Structure formats: C-alpha cells, structure tokens
UniProtKB/TrEMBL annotation:
It holds the Pfam family SAMP2. It comes from the Archaea. This is MoaD/ThiS family protein.
C-alpha cells in the first residue's frame, strides 16, 4: 500500500556561493532523486547533503537540513 502522507521540508540550494531556500511538499517515501525532479534540477550537476553528509539520490528523504550544491565545471 502506498502512503500519500506528505510533509514540508526546507531545501537550501547553493549556486556559486549564493544560497536560496525553498519550502517543498514531499510524500512520505519520496527520494532525493524525485526531489531534484520537482525542483527541475539535473542530478548530474549537483551534490545533495543531509545534515552535511552526502546522500545517494535513491535514498528516501530523512528529516534534517537538506542542501543542494550546484557544481560548476570549467571547460
């Protein structure tokens, strides 16, 4: 049975040193990968942290401080 319970989380996005915060509604068993899709962020361009620890994209989102760090590549 799929739970449709939802909750709000605050996500900090750091791009080139500029930090913004967004409140996002997520489902109980939502993954970091689906969070990135909701935010329209390409998962190949970011690192995701929860409480300052890197997390795999397929993990279920846990409580804590979610940070998304956009990585910039010079060519």
């Amino acid at each position: 049975m799929i739970s449709l319970e939802s909750r709000k989380i605050t996500v900090e996005i750091d791009q080139n040193g500029q930090k913004t915060e967004r409140d996002i509604e997520i489902l109980k068993n939502e993954t970091y990968e689906s969070l990135l899709k909701k935010l329209n962020i390409n998962e190949e361009t970011v690192l995701v942290f929860n409480n300052k620890k890197p997390v795999p994209y397929d993990d279920v989102i846990e409580s804590g401080k979610i940070q998304i760090l956009k990585v910039v590549f010079d060519q």
